[in-house]
């Protein structure tokens, strides 16, 4: 089990992780979600003893990582798939790990087979690995000691769709056998499919946590229901809905109505308008994630520097011949 209590890490005046607390339980995959720079990797580095906390405590099985005897037999870690010597082969990297942990060399072949790295691929030097191959090797190294806990930072990076599906099945099977998985990612769709619990972090603080159902239900409780509807007479239906005091937004084919679908159906029945399509608009995990971390997103939320004026597209067609850079002067005889 992973336990994080009041964890804070500061760098001078910058707070990377701010009073973070959560628990990851055996038999479950916990997704750690947040934008780039939200504090996910810093939290994981504190967990595995690479970064000391400013305040708070992070333990694995009730122990600090540094106090674990032969930690690779208890905790499998993948923070950076490229953090190995580039001149070593994949097999050499796993062999060194097995030797350090006191494992039989047969474990190396088992892990290479598990992550589908062929003998030819395993004999290549790491610098010649693709990113996806590095990720597979990193997962093999994390699982080498048959640990009870896995801590993985963005393990799907570089994997193709088949590789992502393979990793999803691997981690789910690991958790089903009683393992504890902490998986960080910003690939929300992938985490949504595998995680039993989710922790959302932004600006170094936990903004929400729970299972998918709980998170989405909490969102619905604070949002106005929206229904889309298509009928044989959208204009008449829109007029009837507005007369009921409902907000209606016409679209090219459908109406968006700020209410539950049952209310739209009731109005349509009363006015004998035939409906072709009626459905509630459900917000997904991505909508919740973007809403809760909106102040940490780069796109659309950062003001420009003082004096900055955004430039719109040029108005009208360009006038006159194309102009070169200000300092450019065509030279006699230069090719045109």
Compact description:
The chain has 336 residues and is of the alpha/beta class. 32% of the residues lie in helices and 23% in strands.
Strands, helices and their partners?
Layout: E1 2-11, E2 14-24, E3 29-33, H1 40-47, E4 55-60, E5 75-78, H2 90-101, H3 106-114, H4 119-122, H5 131-143, E6 149-153, H6 161-176, E7 180-185, H7 188-194, E8 197-202, E9 205-210, H8 212-221, E10 227-231, H9 234-243, E11 248-250, E12 255-257, H10 261-270, E13 275-280, H11 285-292
Parallel strand pairs: 3-7, 3-8, 5-6, 6-7
Antiparallel strand pairs: 1-2, 1-4, 8-9, 10-12, 10-13, 11-12
Helix pairs in contact: 2-3
Essential attributes:
11 helices; 32% helix; four-stranded antiparallel β-sheet; elongated; alpha/beta; six-stranded mixed β-sheet; 336 residues
Question: What does this protein look like?
Answer:
- The chain is of the alpha/beta class and 336 residues long.
- Helices cover 32% and strands 23% of the residues.
- The chain contains eleven helices and 13 strands.
- The protein has helices at residues 40-47, 90-101, 106-114, 119-122, 131-143, 161-176, 188-194, 212-221, 234-243, 261-270, 285-292; strands spanning 2-11, 14-24, 29-33, 55-60, 75-78, 149-153, 180-185, 197-202, 205-210, 227-231, 248-250, 255-257, 275-280.
- The protein has a six-stranded mixed beta sheet with strand order 5-6-7-3-8-9, sandwiched between helices.
- It is elongated.
- The chain starts with a strand and ends in a 44-residue tail after the last helix.
